[in-house]
Design a protein that fits this description.
By secondary structure, this protein is of the alpha/beta class. Helices cover 31% and strands 22% of the residues. The strands form seven sheets. A seven-stranded parallel β-sheet has the order 11-12-10-13-14-9-15, sandwiched between helices. The protein has a six-stranded parallel β-sheet with strand order 16-26-25-17-24-23, with helices on both faces. Strands 1, 2, 3, 4 and 5 form a five-stranded antiparallel β-sheet that branches. α17 runs antiparallel to α19. The two termini are 49 Å apart. The structure holds adenosine-5'-diphosphate and zinc ion (ZN) (2 copies).
């Protein structure tokens, strides 16, 4: 009997074996899609190995036979399949879900690999002859014929019954479409002349051969310019390149810029694209076309054939790590794939992650710096505004308010960073202290005044705003704290003449909203921009002369292991928005803890010094990046179930040689109606941690307590919340 191991999308950490009919043994190889029975339904699985012969021993009936084979060559080649298996092992996630993450929806549902393999319908001479006469008897068929008279169409897009009828009558025929027009050759734009420093940095980026370079340079220093130079050469040599970015909606100008430089050889890949656009992009990469993919996280799974370079922009950005389900880091997977292609990697950032700085200090990565801004911008002075004892209006100190008025009066532009969207992070009763809380989470509801609703930012729950206090009946309900809406409202009274715009995910929901706003800021139509961390991401607004940071104090006292490094990255990035043009800038950071040692170090000595001491602190505490960390996360509907499961799992893990701390309740113990807790897992080496987890996961899955919880492993967690 022949069996084949497959990946089926389901939450079990195992492969599923199917019986292979003798006649199919020779046609099957790893990485092909097959239809298989699964439970009571049918699904599409992906083969993980070649068929293997096993001794029958009367067990034949235990294995169900596979159904149709959908590919005649592997859809996932050896490299991609190996990278997927690596990721399933490294992140201890079910292989079926890992493989599914790598495929556009259409391919997961059985769509043909090549557009050309999909039959198209072409009208025949007989069909043209009857277009008019058929209309009376069969109007639907006539409509399809009229459509075909204008040009061929994919059979899958035609109404099924009518297509069948027309084919049977010979009014149309099925054939492959004319081959896709090859894209126009790139028409490289004239590159700018590099500065001496950029030239030196470019020389530090290898032409070829695997190696990781951390390119540390402030925003505007020309990192993108350097990526595009190297990539232009890769493409001219017939290769492919990947440029990973945190959020494409915020960087459409990057696509434009790449197209100016590389002509038609640039495609985007991100979650805002339609399924069919994603499929088209996948096919072009699969066909080995020389091109650059500019994409977000999932682009790291595209079926590259001749990958010659990977660049990760803003490599410290937390959005490269998937935060639920298959918790992979696209940045780290990109390095693994580049190694398989023997291709160089560039990790660019003004504020490199602690991991990358750690790898640079141990010599695994090399560090290349770009210290000067390309266009000789004067930069910005940074001042701390002590908010203690000050009378705040709209969350702003008098100093910050005056600075805003001054800059706007002088014809400058200002940017205000606020860490919460909505009007106020809490709604409280002035008489009895009652506060609006989410029913499903241990969290306050955020008041969105404009929408007139209370929203939970953790589970999405909504409530009407009560007119009076549900506890004591008082009509005096007050907003506590400041979100972007409330700051914006205050600014309208502070600066009645100025045009004020808000940039947060509420205001930027409409497609194209960010583009419009960006143009308005660039043209000078908007004088004050209020927003969330959306504003920290690599935008170049030369007119900004003042940056105000309304508060970062929360981060200094957060329970999240990584809160302080994120705060430092954010402050450095937001502050970098000022003074990008001809005029000097000013950055005001408002805080109630002006003497906090971490804040002092960041402000006095800069991000690098701050990162170095944070790394020393982590090394002393045996925490990442000095020592690897994984979390076993669990959540349950019943209050004690997550803890009970984690206690049992801790026993298994300890027996396998891992150190397991916990269960510790998550800082927000209940979210979306589920109780959450986690185990902190460590070992002396990464290899030891990985091995312990690999062995333990199989046993943990079989624990009776596992049936009452949702659980998952989070290797190299981006947060510990
Ligand atoms: P980063 O990626 O580090 O933010 P960019 O490559 O986007 O930097 O450069 C910032 C801006 O400066 C861009 O508008 C870019 O076109 C421009 N620029 C970069 N290098 C030069 C140069 N050598 N001469 C003129 N303009 C440059
Ligand atoms: Zn009350
Ligand atoms: Zn909630």
């Amino acid at each position: 009997m022949w069996l084949i191991a497959t990946a089926v999308k389901c939450p079990l950490r195992r492969r599923f074996d199917y019986q292979v009919p003798e006649a199919l043994v020779a046609t099957l190889s790893p990485g092909m899609r097959i239809r298989v029975p699964f439970g009571r339904r049918e699904t599409i699985a992906v083969t993980l190995d070649a068929p293997r012969r096993v001794d029958d021993g009367g067990t034949a009936r235990a294995y169900r036979p596979l159904g149709e084979v959908l590919d005649d060559a592997p859809l996932l080649d050896t490299e991609l399949l190996a990278s997927l298996k690596w990721a399933a092992d490294y992140y201890h996630h079910p292989i079926g879900e890992v493989v599914a993450a790598a495929l556009p929806t259409a391919l997961r549902q059985g769509e043909a690999r090549n557009a050309a393999e999909q039959p198209w319908l072409h009208i025949t001479a007989a069909g043209r002859a009857v277009i008019d006469t058929i209309a009376r008897r069969a109007p639907a068929q006539a409509r399809l014929l009229a459509r075909l008279a204008e040009g061929a169409m994919p059979r899958s897009e035609a109404p099924r019954e009518q297509a069948k009828a027309l084919l049977e009558r010979g009014y149309c025929e099925q054939a492959l479409p004319a081959p896709l027009a090859t894209p126009p050759p790139p028409e490289p734009g004239a590159p700018v002349a590099l500065t001496a420093e950029q030239t030196a940095a470019l020389a530090g980026l290898p032409w070829a051969g695997f190696g990781v370079t951390v390119l540390q340079g402030v925003t505007g220093s020309g990192k993108t310019e350097l990526y595009l130079r190297r990539i232009a050469d890769d493409i001219a040599a017939g290769g492919q390149a990947l440029l990973l970015v945190p959020e494409i909606g915020l960087t459409p100008q990057l696509l434009e810029r790449a197209r100016e430089r590389l002509g038609g050889a640039v495609i985007g890949y991100h979650s805002a694209m339609t399924d069919s656009a994603r499929l088209d992009a996948w096919r072009r990469v699969d066909a080995g076309e020389p091109l650059l993919v500019v994409g977000t996280r999932s682009a790291v799974w595209l079926p590259f054939r001749r990958l010659m370079r990977v660049c990760v922009d803003e490599e410290h950005d937390v959005s490269f790590k998937q935060q639920d389900g298959f918790r992979y880091s696209a940045r780290d997977v990109a390095v693994v794939r580049a190694r398989a292609f023997d291709a160089p990697v560039v990790l660019g950032s003004a504020t490199p992650s602690l991991e990358s700085l750690h790898n640079a200090s141990t010599g695994r990565y090399q560090l290349v710096r770009l210290d000067v801004r390309a266009r000789e911008a004067p930069g910005a002075r940074l001042h701390v505004v002590d908010a203690r004892g000050q009378r705040l209006r709209g969350g702003l100190t008098p100093d910050l308010s005056r600075a805003l008025q001054r800059h706007v009066a002088d014809g400058g532009q200002a940017l205000l960073f606020v860490n919460r969207r909505g009007y106020a992070p809490a709604l409280l009763c002035h008489d009895c202290g009652w506060g609006a809380s989410c029913r499903a989470c241990d969290a306050r509801m955020t008041w969105h005044k404009r929408r007139g609703r209370l929203l939970c930012h953790h589970c999405g729950a909504q409530q009407a705003v009560p007119e009076s206090c549900p506890a004591c009946g008082s009509a005096t309900l007050r907003a506590a704290g400041h979100g972007t809406e409330r700051v914006e409202e205050h600014l309208r009274t502070l600066l009645p003449e100025a045009r004020i715009a808000r940039a947060d995910s509420d205001a930027m929901q409409r497609a194209g909203a960010w583009d419009t706003l960006r143009d308005e800021v660039l043209s000078g139509a908007v004088q004050v921009l209020v927003g969330t961390q959306m504003l920290a991401k690599g935008h170049d607004f030369p007119g900004i002369t003042l940056v105000g940071i309304v508060s970062v104090d929360q981060a200094l006292f957060s329970a999240d292991l990584r809160a302080t490094e994120r705060m430092a990255q954010l402050v450095t990035q937001v502050a970098g928005r000022a003074g990008r043009g001809a005029r000097a800038g000013e950055v005001l950071l408002q805080t109630h803890v002006p003497d906090h040692p971490l804040l002092r170090e960041l402000l006095d000595d800069g991000y690098e010094a701050f990162a170095a001491s944070l790394r020393a602190e982590r090394a002393a505490a045996a925490l990442p990046p000095a020592r690897p960390l994984a979390l076993l996360r669990a959540e349950s509907a019943a209050e004690r179930a997550a803890d009970a499961f984690l206690e049992a799992a801790a026993g298994v893990l300890r027996a396998r040689g891992a150190e397991a701390l916990g269960p510790v309740p998550a800082p927000m113990m209940r979210r979306a109606g589920r109780y959450r807790a986690q185990l902190w897992l460590q070992a002396d080496s990464r290899a030891a941690l990985q091995q312990a987890l690999a062995q333990a996961c199989v046993e943990i899955e079989a624990l009776p307590a596992a049936r009452r919880v949702r659980w998952g492993v989070d290797v190299d967690p981006a947060d510990t919340l």
